[in-house]
Amino acid sequence: MREILGRRRRHRPRRKASPARLDAALTCATAWQWPVLPGVGLATTGVRGERGRDCACPDPECAVPGAHPFDPGLLAATTDARMVRWWWTNRPAAPVVLATGGRAPCALSLPAVAGARALAALDVMGLRLGPVVATPTRWSLLVAPYTLERLGELLHAKDWVPSSLRFHGEGGYLVLPPSEIGTGQVRWERAPAAGDRAPWLPDVESVLDALVEASNSAPDGGSRLAY
């Protein structure tokens, strides 16, 4: 009997974390000291447990399917390797969510088409950029941490900013590669440089100034970054 039980224990299937997502989460948390947590992810459908495009949260009309924290909540974000391993071992398909602000990066995001135009314009200006996260619908430029007070001062000093621009600062979050969300795959448009140190990040003021300038330079007087 002991031999049979022993064989059953040895052959019991074990849940394995997705190596790519676990590795990404561990790199963020331990090498870069960026606090992360698993996102809610996508609901499974069909007998094979395939993933659809609906959010796994209880809201049937979720506006950002799969791309937000739920359980655990955002305040659980951590840099502890043991917690990260436990999360992604139990939820191997979970997106990697960065809690922005504090000592972690913040971000400015634009619709995908506007984001591609923005990167091209900023390259022409010679502005040094940090990592850029891309989804099928939005592109996010990572910047050095800023406070809400500083952001307010910067925006107050502008006559106008593109209405499509969103800010991910203190108390916010951003889904990182190689996650999959309702709109599709999350990838690096500009990947962090290889190495053990945290990626270099530009100051938010320089990126915001350049984005406003790029938008105002539209030949028809409109905004290049509106869509």
Q: Largest sheet at a glance? A: 5 strands, antiparallel
How many individual helices? 6
Tell me roughly what share of residues is in helical segments. 25-40%
Question: What is the typical, i.e. mean, pLDDT?
Answer: 87
Number of strand segments: 12
Low-pLDDT stretches are: 1-17
| Structural shape | globular
| End-to-end distance | 68 Å
Query: What share of residues are in beta strands?
Result: 15-25%
Instruction: Report strand order across the widest sheet.
Output: 8-5-7-6-12
Which structural class fits the helix and strand makeup? alpha+beta
Order of helices and strands: HHEEEHEEHEEHEEEEEH
Rg from Cα:
20 Å
Polypeptide structure, described:
By secondary structure, the protein is of the alpha+beta class. It is built from six helices and twelve strands. It has helices at 2-11, 19-31, 81-90, 112-125, 148-156, 204-216; strands at 36-38, 42-45, 50-55, 96-99, 106-111, 132-134, 138-143, 166-168, 173-176, 180-181, 184-185, 187-190. A five-stranded antiparallel sheet has the order 8-5-7-6-12. It has a three-stranded antiparallel sheet with strand order 1-4-9. A hairpin with a 2-residue loop joins strand 10 (180-181) and strand 11. Helix 4 crosses helix 6 (204-216). The longest helix has 14 residues, at 112-125. The N and C termini lie far apart (68 Å).
